[in-house]
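Task: complex structure prediction.
Instruction: return structure tokens for all chains below.
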Amino acid sequence: AQRVTQPEKLLSVFKGAPVELKCNYSYSGSPELFWYVQYSRQRLQLLLRHISRESIKGFTADLNKGETSFHLKKPFAQEEDSAMYYCALSKDSGYSTLTFGKGTMLLVSP
Amino acid sequence: KAGVTQTPRYLIKTRGQQVTLSCSPISGHRSVSWYQQTPGQGLQFLFEYFSETQRNKGNFPGRFSGRQFSNSRSEMNVSTLELGDSALYLCASRGSDTQYFGPGTRLTVL
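Output:
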């Protein structure tokens, strides 16, 4: 069975500091990996997916198949980045079933 | 395009009762998935419907069931409610790139 692990429940940084939210996964096949974000009182929304290799709101994530990791990074955190971040895995390109990590709360202080 | 909508937004029930939650996907989306979100277990996949057929199912007891109508709207039902069923129930509809989530129904079981 597939599994997604986010080792940090809470990550607290100061504005302007670099951020790295860790995500490790276990799956024997070739998964699709995603990062979702949930801002306060808003619905869960897609931040980025590995297949698109794009940068959204300054965030990037690289899929490392050797280390089975998909860490989310941003060089300079902003206060508006404070939110709950979830790493998710889909077994296939159909994205029908997502397996989520338990999430990391990012708090960016001024 | 209107987003995924869920009704009701909040619900309070007592143990032993049953409950039905409703989800309307984004127009044109034919796949609807349901997730349970709790502080302890995080986001867990319940089931997915596509063209009125259950296509995937998570590891939940038979008390949890669902269905999908010809207009792609979906309902999930929980019978014989238990205290542990208190959770945020999220519905998502699948687009070409990922799943789009609704605001959720907050179910409290007393």
